[in-house]
Amino acid sequence: MRNSNPRVITIDGPSGSGKGTISVRLAEILGYNYLDSGLLYRLFGHEVRRRNIPLSFLEGSRKEARDISKSIKTKFPEFFFGENAKKMMGNTDDLFDVLRSDQAAVDASNVARLPVVRQELLDLQRTYRLHPGLIADGRDMGTVVFPDADLKIFLTASVLTRARRRYKQLKDKGMSVSLDALAVSIEERDRMDSMRKESPLRPSEDADVIDSSELGIDQVLEIIESRFKEKLTDS
Question: What pLDDT, in 10s, does the model give residues 44-71?
């Protein structure tokens, strides 16, 4: 018999795989809540940079990590959750631009390697498992945060595809960027995320892996919806 916990679909994957866009669309289709865990880590990394805290110090200070976590929850109680997180996908204010920058991505990856940070944010993320259900977007949603999720998706794409997507995003904002430099940056981010000791980026054993390199958004959504219906039937 299934427990009474709200249903959860986790969508993990590397930067540029399209998981954010897919997660928001899926949450709208199913009427579920949406958690952007990547935005949460970017907020944490941004705060560490703003306070000029050395990572070597943060690594050994549970008190400092807890203080930052509480600060984020106080200042941005639902910034990375629900309708606010969905709106952030299309927002253009200053903070959004900062958090979607390449520097913010690096900062997020750096703090995500620290066990003290991951532990502080783990319980916070789990509090957003609310009815009628949750779409959890991140890098370890299916392996660590929600290991009992009803459906686990690992969305990926080739480095070149992801670099082209990022290139278009930045060019549309009028920014001067290099496709080659973006590809190198993405490869380095992948290396850091997959080799970190705590919660490395990898699909869980029971995840459905989807390569979106040659697929459109609607095609990916169709695959996920079909798989979710199968899961509901099986349960």
Answer: 999 999 999 999 999 998 899 999 988 8
* Among 131, 25, 135, CA closest to 81: 135
User: How is 98-126 classified by DSSP, letter by letter?
Assistant: HHTSHHHHHHHHHHHT-HHHHHHHHHHHH
Which two structure tokens, joined as six digits, stand for 73?
């929850």
Residue 37 lies in a domain: yes
Number of domains in the chain: 1
Structural domain of residue 70, as residue ranges? 7-225
Question: In the beta sheet, which residues pair with residue 135?
Answer: 9, 34
Task: For residue 230, tell me if it sits in a domain.
Answer: no
pLDDT tens profile 81-104 = 666 665 655 554 577 778 878 789
CATH assignment at residue 174: 3.40.50.300
| Residue 211 main-chain phi, psi, to 5 deg | -95, 115
User: 121-158 burial string, b = 16+ CB within 10 Å, else e?
Assistant: beebbeebbeeebbbbbbbbbbbbbbeebbbbbbbbbb
**Calpha distance 235→224 (Å, rounded):** 17
